[in-house]
Design a protein that fits this description.
246 residues; alpha+beta; 27% strand
Length: 246
């Protein structure tokens, strides 16, 4: 009985160790990985005991800076009243013993359109909803969603596109057709049994032969005219040398 109680006591001690506590989770409001410059942003370190967690970030101009250097602390949250494009970077929560939470990449743009997507990693097979958001109204504008340079589907800017399954519905009548790459005209038809390449080579050879034939005919005509011209000159000289005696 003593041995059982001793083992149980050891398990309790292990359970009280901070190394077995789950790390904090970082959340962002608004929940988007892309933000407009000038937006208000709130980041929070959430877990059962948020005391001791510090919000940090890495940007192009700074490394491992904490909330007090670029935001306003509010309990377990850090608020940014006006976020700038230079504040794009990686954000995370870090405890006093060095434990870190999930990281979130935030991109701040000065443009007029952003793609709103989940800020947290998603599992394969999960539904993902994407939004095209404009900085100024109207927000219900036509939009086209692309993945790796390929068109997914045209949508209204305020209507979500779910990438878990392919679309089976046609685009709304009010949306203009999405632009597509120019389609080249089909090659000229070739005789049966000849590939387009062979037909092109054969056509080129025929054209060259015709040009050569025309040149030869022209040279022949020019030579004939020159010979006739020389004959007339000879006759004139012959008649000029004749002398008539009386």
């Amino acid at each position: 009985m003593r041995n059982i109680e001793k083992k149980y006591s050891n398990i309790q001690n292990l359970g009280s160790s901070s190394s077995f506590c789950p790390p904090a989770g970082l959340t962002v409001s608004p929940s988007s990985s892309q933000l407009f410059e000038g937006e208000f942003v709130s980041l929070s370190c959430e877990d059962d005991s948020s005391d001791g967690w510090t919000l940090r970030r890495n940007t192009t101009t700074e490394t491992r800076t904490q909330c007090d250097d670029w935001g306003t602390s509010a309990g377990s949250s850090c608020n940014i009243d006006y976020i700038h494009t230079l504040e794009s970077g990686v954000y995370w929560c870090e405890s006093r013993d060095g434990t870190t939470s999930n990281t979130i990449n935030i991109t701040v743009t000065g443009g007029s359109v952003i793609l709103q997507s989940p800020v947290l990693p998603v599992m394969e097979g999960d539904n993902v909803t994407l939004h095209c958001k404009t900085k100024t109204p109207p927000s219900n504008l036509p939009a086209a969603f692309y993945k790796d340079g390929s068109l997914i589907r045209p949508e209204s800017a305020g209507k979500p596109s779910t990438t878990s399954s392919p679309s089976t519905t046609s685009p709304p009548a009010s949306s203009p057709p999405a632009s597509s790459p120019p389609v080249s005209s089909p090659p000229a038809s070739s005789p049966p049994g000849l590939s387009p390449v062979l037909w092109s080579v054969l056509s080129l050879c025929i054209l060259v032969l015709l040009v050569v034939l025309v040149v030869l005919v022209l040279l022949f005509i020019s030579a004939a005219e020159e010979e006739v011209g020389h004959g007339d000159v000879t006759d004139d000289i012959t008649y000029s040398d004749v002398k008539i005696c009386t």
